[in-house]
Amino acid sequence: MLWLTIFFVVPLGFLAYQSLQSGNIDFGYAFTWAWGNYWSALTDYRAQFVRSLEYAGMATVIALLVSYPVAYWIAFRGGRWKNVLLLCIVAPFFVTYLIRTLAWQTILADHGFVVRTLINLHLLGSGGRLLATGTAVVAGITYNFLPFMALPLYVSLEQVDPRLIEAAEDLYANKILAFLRVTLPLSLPGVVAGTLLTFIPAAGDFINAQLWAAPKTT
Amino acid sequence: MIGNVIQSKFLAASDYPSAAAMSFILMGGILAFVAVYAWVVGTEELTGSAV
Predict the structure, then answer these.
(1) Mean pLDDT per segment of 10 residues, for chain A of length 218 residues?
(2) What is the pTM of this model?
(3) Which 103-162 residues of chain A touch chain B by CB within 8 A?
(4) Which residue of A has its CA nearest to B40?
(5) Do A179 and A130 touch, CB atoms closer than 8 A?
(6) Is the interface score ipTM higher than 0.85?
(7) Which of the residues A106, A122, A214, A216 has an alpha carbon 20 to 30 A from that of B6?
(8) CA distance A49 to chain B (A)
(9) How far are the Cα atoms of A67, A96, A131, A176 from residue A102, in angstroms, in the given order?
(10) Best residue in B1, B4, B22 to probe A by mutation, most A CBs within 10 Å?
């Protein structure tokens, strides 16, 4: 409780106090109940707010679609390789987020290896580029937050009792029906935890947009 | 994205009040999204099955 008060409520309260101030950097700020700040922020940057939620939502859905099969496979078919495979998912965390995004920036850059190859293979037009597009930002967010989605999914899928699936099959459910009626509902807590863990930081993310795209266009 | 706007307001433009206001709007937006999501999925059912 004390922890939460000191490290969450106090900064948040200070931010709230600051958000109602008016003035500028040269003459200092004064607290004036300036609700206009909220109004002008909303009217001036509506597009960016909407786009943030949109991109975060898209990245979350893609991350879910990609990591569900992966987590499923590790949980049910992983066998003795389970820990190694999990390590593979966590491995990117051993390098900082910022460094990884920067590294990908050089790989995918306009004159980089990947873009040149794609142009030579005529998969991309001659002026084509991968970065500085909305797609790049969504891809970046998806990439960076994938483990946050995969790990809770794995945990909830791991807890599914295989005997329940066998029982469903004994009761004449085929594989698809058994998945839809048994495995999927039991893994829903993981899906919810994963989507929240991905969506919330993704909506406020600025590193991906800054490094993989010109922030003005995104 | 809005994170970039907030960052540049805080660091480049030193416009702390608008940046703070935007952070709160973002928080509110995310909260609203999450609330709707939790309501649609039905958290009671989830916590019930998780325990």
Answers:
(1) 86 87 76 81 84 91 95 90 90 87 84 82 76 83 91 92 89 88 88 92 85 61
(2) 0.83
(3) 137
(4) A192
(5) no
(6) no
(7) A106
(8) 6
(9) 23, 10, 12, 41
(10) B1
